[in-house]
Amino acid sequence: MTLDRIHHIAVICSDRDAALHFYSDVLGFPVIRSNYRKERDDWKIDLKINEETELELFIMHSRPSRVTNPEAYGLRHLAFHVEDVKHTVGELAENGIECEPVRFDEYTGKAMTFFRDPDGLPIEIHE
Q: Is 47 part of a structural domain of the chain?
């Protein structure tokens, strides 16, 4: 068996407008498809991360809030590579997104930090 790349990452969001603003307008992932699924009363919105990877947003109502402390088993966070963490932090700040202080990964020595999406999902940027 060969699993050679990630096809997509799926995130459940509570607010369609807030999620689209955050992931598309602020983070810059263009919308590929946006579909309302009447039978489920939800939205499935596909965004392009790069030529091979998509980000699926599922806009669902009445879901439990994310467990933050203690962390639950499962997906811990999303991490994206950037060329310059400090520059990206500045761009995020211009859009009202607060980041944790920049620190250095103890194993790679590279700059990194975290911020959160509108529903509290941790997102890392890493050089």
A: yes
Final residue before a domain boundary, out of 30, 62, 94: 62
Q: Are 77 and 122 in contact (CB under 8 A)?
A: yes
Residues 7 and 58 in one domain: yes
Asked if residue 103 lies in contact with residue 112, where contact means CB atoms within 8 angstroms, the answer is yes
Question: What is the pLDDT at residue 70?
Answer: 83
The pLDDT-based confidence of 63 (bands split at 50, 70, 90) is confident
Domain coverage including residue 105 = 77-127
CA–CA gap between residue 113 and residue 101 (Å, rounded): 6
Assigned domain for 71 exists: no
| pLDDT tens, position by position, 16-39 | 999 999 999 999 999 999 999 999
Q: What distances in angstroms separate CA 79 from CA 1, 27, 34, 38, one per listed residue?
A: 25, 12, 24, 32
Note whether 84 and 54 are same-domain residues. no
Q: How far apart are CA 54 and CA 7, in angstroms?
A: 6
Please tell me the predicted confidence (pLDDT) of residue 21. Answer: 97
Q: Is 102:85 a contact under the CB 8 Å cutoff?
A: yes
